[in-house]
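Researcher: I'm comparing several assemblies side by side, and this is the next one on my list. It has 492 residues spread over two chains. Same procedure as the others: predict the full complex and return the structure.
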Amino acid sequence: MTLQLHNTLTKKIEPFTSQQEGKALLYTCGPTVYNYLHVGNWAAYIYWDTLVRTLQANHYSVERVMNITDVGHLTSDADDGEDKLEKGARREGKTAWEVAEMYAEDFMGGMEKLGLLLPQHVTKATDFIPQQLDLVRILKEKGYTYQITDGIYFDTSKFANYADFASLDLEAQKAGARVEFNPEKRNASDFALWKFTPAGEKRDMEWQTPNDLLIDPNQQLMGFPGWHLECSAMAMSILGPTLDIHTGGIDHIPVHHTNEIAQSESASGQLFSRFWLHNNHLTADGTKISKSLGNGYTLQDLAERGFSALDYRMFVLQSHYRSESNFSFENLAAAKNRLDHWRAIAALRHQTHDTLQNDDDKSLDDHSVSLQATSQAIIETLNNDLNTPETLHIVDVAFSKLDTTSLGSIHQHGLQEVLNTIDEVLGLQLQSSTPDIDDDSKQVIIERQRARDEKNWSESDRLRDELLGKGITIRDTPGGSIWEYAPTTLLQ
RNA sequence: GGCGCGUUGGCGGAGCAGUUACGCAGCGGUCUGCAAAACCGCGUAGACGGGUGCGACUCCCGUACGUGCCUCCA
């Protein structure tokens, strides 16, 4: 099966194709760096990392841009809230620049812990101010903008298909709106492209508004970009007017992405993105994740309870990206146990003695065949709109078979191939987390076997404890002793 | 008020119109020097009411409940 993806644009699952053969242009809406990311935020990046890996498994080279929003994201989409960065800065007694730097660094650290592939372009909104102003200029020249007291706005009534993407009923929304909108705006859905620093205020982050963008060119106005503008400016200036895929959270459909499409397509006259993928949200402890509820767990919170970032990655892969899923530590523990089992299987690759070099050797029951088929099946299920839960099921079935297979009968090459595939597409680092044990430990295992042969149980148990001290557990099977890495214990 | 989604066993979570999802947890057993692991078995899931099928968890309609976005947020 070729890669099929659910496209929000058409609300259907469609075969994926790119504009340029073998190359996919991808834009991912990144974080606003005014706080630590919580598990819900991270889930999105894990899903999109799986997308990138799946594209690569389908022989696409991926050129990907991810923004870091370090300015202009207001605390309200009504364009009259505070800037999150400026607010965060006041909270912490720092400048907006320092806050952005600190949390951006934390974000990059989290990416690494989770084993997320680094996009080719990780771009900060503040590094793309000229490009954003250029976009405003183009829109102004084409007659899509108007200026009011607090900024330059995009007139959504001039973009005929504005409501289509999110199936918006603008009139009904207006009637039921719970937020007062700026009465100077021509339409409730109009949004700020560029905001002016209010008179008498000084922001940490502000730039001179180019005179040619103003009604009165003699005005001297400081300002800053609206939140939606940055994504369009970075995406188009780096990847060109039309993306192959644009990803983001489901919450972005009605406002952020709708606005991105409006401003980008109005400026370029071309389709902004051919595919739009949206991840559903995570709840935590049965309710929506929210700072005020205290369930916005961070990676640090997980670590303090004995869970690694990769345990969390496994947890996220257990549900489909378009389903709403629920985070709890109980569920995370289930994911961790599953990952520990997979690692035990991965450790077998050091302990098999491959007597069969030929994959087609039929004398070896069906293990080699099934392992080969597993690698293929993993890609197939991911190609089905990134069906990661089904992928895990396939791996479980294959690994269960290995549980019942004696060491000598495991087809090492096939196992190696499956592990490679899993690590490539799921990023669980099964192999790097299970290096071969050192020679000393191997010697201890041999000595223990000798003690057991002599029924010297006290010596045998002593050696087993010695290995446990090194984080290695032993299980004795009819076919011999097998070692694996001891699972890390959870803090209660 | 508008738009959307969901309801599967103790917890999580898929596929599929007719045969075990899978994982985790629980109980019983086998194996084992012990332990661990593994294996076998058990608990007979599909909100409710209709409809269409020989047959529905799986398609259609309705009801109830829950939930998301429109307001911080992936």
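Model: For your comparison table: Chain A has 15 helices and 17 strands.
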